[in-house]
Design goal:
globular; 3 helices; 4-stranded antiparallel β-sheet; 84 residues; single chain; alpha+beta
Length: 84
């Protein structure tokens, strides 16, 4: 898993989302419109306790009660959810 996290961190400058994804992320994470949601997700991924795994075409990152799903090919944040 540590190897997978290093691989994803090497691509974080490419991290982005779509307009529809931005709205979904703000709603799901309870963030303000004025916040840079991509920067927020990047910060979560860089936290020491963040667990990263890759299954198929997606990366899954879990930390601080949040799960982030990222398309591995385009490095686009698909969605994020608060975990119970």
């Amino acid at each position: 898993m540590e190897k997978e996290k290093e691989c994803l961190i090497g691509q974080l400058e490419r991290l982005s989302t779509t307009e529809m994804g931005l709205q979904r992320l703000q709603r799901n994470l309870g963030r303000q419109e004025s916040e840079d949601i991509v920067a927020y997700c990047r910060e979560l991924i860089l936290r020491p306790g963040c667990r990263v795994s890759r299954r198929g075409k997606n990366w899954y990152c879990e930390t601080s009660g949040v799960r982030i799903t990222i398309h591995a090919g385009s490095c686009t944040i698909i969605t994020a959810h608060r975990m119970p």
